[in-house]
Amino acid sequence: MTSSQNPRSDAPPAATLSAPTLTTMTPTSGSTAGGTTVTISGSSLTGATAVKFGTTNAASYTVLSDSAISAVSPAGSAGTVQVTVTTASGTSNGLPFTYVAPPPPSLSSLTPNQGSSNGGTTVTISGSSLTGATAVKFGTTNAASYTVLSSTAISAVSPAGSAGAVQVTVTTASGTSNGLPFTYVAPPPPSLSSLTPNQGSTAGGTTVTISGSSLTGATAVKFGTTNAASYAVLSDSAISAVSPAGSAGAVQVTVTTASGTSNGVSFTYVPPPTLSSLAPGQGSAAGGTTVTLTGTGLSGATSVKFGSTAATSFTVVSATQITATAPPGSAGSVLVTVTTPGGTSNGLTYFYLGAPVLTSLGPNQGPAAGGTAVTLTGTNLFGASAVSFGGTPATAFTVVSATEITATAPAGTGTVQVTVTTGGGTSNGLPYGYVAAPTLTALVPNQGPVAGGTTVTLAGTNLATTTGVFFGATSAAFTVVSATQVAATAPAGTGTVQVTATTAGGTSNGVSFTYVAAPTLSSLAPGQGSAAGGTTVTLTGTGLSGATSVKFGGTAATSFTVVSATQITATAPPKPAGPAAVTVTTPGGTSNGLTYFYLSAPVLTSLGPNQGPAAGGTAVTLTGTNLAGTSAVSFGGTPATAFTVVSATEITATAPAGTGTVQVTVTTGGGTSNGLPYGYVAAPTLTALVPNQGPVAGGTTVTLTGTDLTTTTGVAFDGTPAAFTIVSATQVVAGAPPGSAGPVPVTVTTAGGTSNSLTYTRLQPPGI
């Protein structure tokens, strides 16, 4: 018989799973609160699906092996229950587990056993059976917070309470403990010892650490009579407060709690520093240049920075002068600032000069007669003092930026080295070649459409190095065919223009080319704007459809929109102050140019007078630069009552009412100027004249007593000026002028106005 006819099975018989059996359990009892870890021993425990204490599932369990399980007892009532294990094969026999009710909590000590009536004292409560505490009370008030550290210790924070003793108790599920006494002690009034820092800006905002004692529960922090901008109690001995704005000078800082107000500690308000000039205004990128900074409020300077880099060193010479050593820096401009406890000053520009490096010339050749405008490109070109073509100075040069100079080549021959000299040294040289000038003899054809696109053949001599072909002032695309021929594509244009070819040797004679209509401009509005650009300008004209560019003095508008065939709106690009011709280019050519004026930001240099009465009305002359077109004059944010622009360097304005010292600024289309201080002066008052009478012949020395007399500009007896001497803010001595017998009013005039009058009586001499 084959195996296929009588198959044999070698598979084992299916296993039979036994129900779990329990033999021992350790421990056999635990708290009614649950949480006791029990080890259950037995057999067939693998795959347990439930462990129960009575009818309640274990809080958790872990099968350790087929013969052991670790289980955590759930909460239960006092008494004995059966512990069982269930698997897929059934439920085991039960083993007894006894729930024992924990004893009520008991307290033995408090550490510390007294604290402030403000609360906040951390107290360690020692005792027994403290696990599961549900309440900690100081008298009848719950603790501010508490943490059960163990069954014998609790950490609790006392709540606020009245001075005297209260009982501290702990409550658990088993009851409330005995009480232990905790004594509330009323805190002493606050006391201050120091401020750090003890000075700051009049603008406020200085964060001050106030040190002292009994500061917990502070209800107010004051700088003089003004509340701190904000404060935070860090501890019983420290408060962090932010100073409010204040007037220059010292004030007393105080702290108030429920126990009273502290002693005062002095805090000095310092006005912010200002810088007006620095000299020199440039130096080596290697640093080391000694720079003199001039300004106001420089005493107590804590730092001098060039950009974001601290000066190598600095010396405060006086309240108006600092000498600083420039740190190393990268070539270019940085702002120099001074920081004092009063804040950080305005910034003044300082230029770092690196050794110049030339990378390219454009063009790198030109006519032997000179006159070629050459653009030198490189780095560290600011402050150039010389441009040389083979040892011959450039006819003229302009430093456009730190990376560009335009120079006019002098006459010369052959190939020479071009170099640039700055305060940082002399650059490498780049070759420049002198070549012969081109000439033109013919154009074929010599006319084309206004849209351009005509291919024109230029015939002449010395055309091999052609760098540009121009139809009038408009450049054209071109191809050099030979030394005697150039092919060019006529750009858009109008009328008859002169076509010229430019080579390194110069610009040729012109040959006429006639365009058969181009855009025209008739007006633009506004006609001026800030040198920073951004002004929206409306251009009006004809033939403006399809405009491809709008330029301001050769610089493309930041953006533009063609509104119609007669109107375009364009955003002016940044440019230096001065006039710029605005043009529009369309496929029909480039329009005429209309003048647009770029305005520099206004600058104020002086005010006269620089003070006046608080009621306003003073006629103030403002002197500076770029004042034409002024649209606003502000005294500390308040518009002048009236103003008149006298010239680009002078404005007369009527001061509005105000108080204190304010900054006067001017706003034009070029921006808002720097501010200059203007002081409002209180009106004087007179309280007494001694003596108050004298002869009609005059000559009596009269002492005038009153207030705000420091700036006295005149003393009048019934309108007649008298000679006077200012003794103090409360006293002026004047010589009574002659006059008719009888009483007359006496007044004093200051920058703050004219005082009230007091009576002075002139007496006739006695008769004989």
Automatic annotation (TrEMBL):
This protein's UniProt keywords: Plasmid
Domain IPT/TIG: 19-100, 104-185, 189-270, 272-353, 355-435, 437-516, 518-599, 601-681, 683-761
GO biological process, one term: carbohydrate metabolic process
Family matches, as SUPFAM superfamilies: E set domains
Any GO MF annotation of the entry: semaphorin receptor activity
Presence of keyword Cell membrane: no
CDD domains, alphabetized: IPT
Biased composition (Low complexity): 11-35
Lineage top rank: taxon: Bacteria
Biased composition (Polar residues): 113-123
Residue ranges, annotated region (Disordered): 1-35, 92-123
Pfam families given in the database record: TIG
Protein name (Swiss-Prot/TrEMBL): IPT/TIG domain-containing protein
Organism: Kitasatospora camelliae
